[in-house]
Amino acid sequence: LVRSDFEWLRPLRASVSSIIVFGCWDDGDTERGCREAYVLLRMLEATRAMVVDKEAGYIRNARGWFQDTQARFPELFGACDLKFVASDMTRETDDLPIDCFDLAYCSGVLYFMRSNVGQLQAAINTMARVVRPGGWVVACEDEGLDERFEEAGLERVQSSSDAPEYAYCYRKPLSTRM
Questions:
Q1: Element housing 134 (H / E)
Q2: DSSP assigned state of 63
Q3: Contact between residue 1 and residue 38 where contact means Cβ atoms under 8 Å apart
Q4: Residue 5 or 97, more confident
Q5: Is the separation of the CB atoms in 62 and 33 below 8 Å?
Q6: Average pLDDT of the chain?
Q7: How far apart are CA 23 and CA 21, in angstroms?
Q8: How far is CA 24 from CA 73, 112, 157, in A?
Q9: Distance, CA of 111 to chain centre
Q10: What is the pLDDT of residue 61?
């Protein structure tokens, strides 16, 4: 996982200061641990991020890696606010703030829910719920999920030409209240 893997998201830099990343995959393997949130924070120059995974052990590992890295290399993360939350994105919970983030991101997480459409839709609904109006929902997943994102009330956005072919880029509509 390197910064260039996310270069296609660089145009979002001006509109993203807070990020939520679902799925951290940090089972203690130093090669594979939760790195997406850190790369996104740095590349998008965001100031706040939340990492969410339903596995409390993964969250502990990710938090530990971050704390160790921040202590050794404080210049890498500066004054960013990074929180780690053990929570299941397929269930409504008070652990995740509503309309709060500029970007909700996941990669390879929804794949594991494909056999249960209810869980899959609930997870995408959660991603839509936590982003502010006008915020971005980006998922790097297998094909065939457009209908699920649209059912969550999100609007598809044409992604850049260098985006992975399996990237879903959506926005939460701005409020139309008067």
A1: strand 131-140
A2: H
A3: no
A4: 97
A5: yes
A6: 87
A7: 6
A8: 21, 14, 25
A9: 15
A10: 86
Question: Residue 144 has which token pair?
Answer: 């065939």
Distance CA 78, CA 80 (A): 6
Is there a contact between 125 and 42 (Cβ–Cβ < 8 Å)?
no
* Total Cβ atoms within 10 A of residue 129: 18
For residue 82, give the H/E element and its range: strand 81-86
What is the pTM assigned to this prediction?
0.91
Q: Which amino acid appears at position 60 of this protein?
A: R
The one-character DSSP state at 172 is: P
Q: What is the DSSP letter of 136?
A: E
pLDDT digits (tens, 9 = 90+) for 132-164: 999 999 999 988 899 999 999 999 998 777 888
Contact between residue 123 and residue 91 where contact means Cβ atoms under 8 Å apart: no
End-to-end CA distance of the chain: 44
Distance of alpha carbon 127 from alpha carbon 123, whole angstroms: 6
What pLDDT score does 178 carry?
37
49 touches 21 (CB < 8 A)? yes
Give CA 45 to chain center in angstroms: 15
**What CA–CA distance (Å, rounded) separates 78 from 69?**
12
H-assigned helices in the chain: 36-44, 56-72, 74-77, 117-130, 146-151
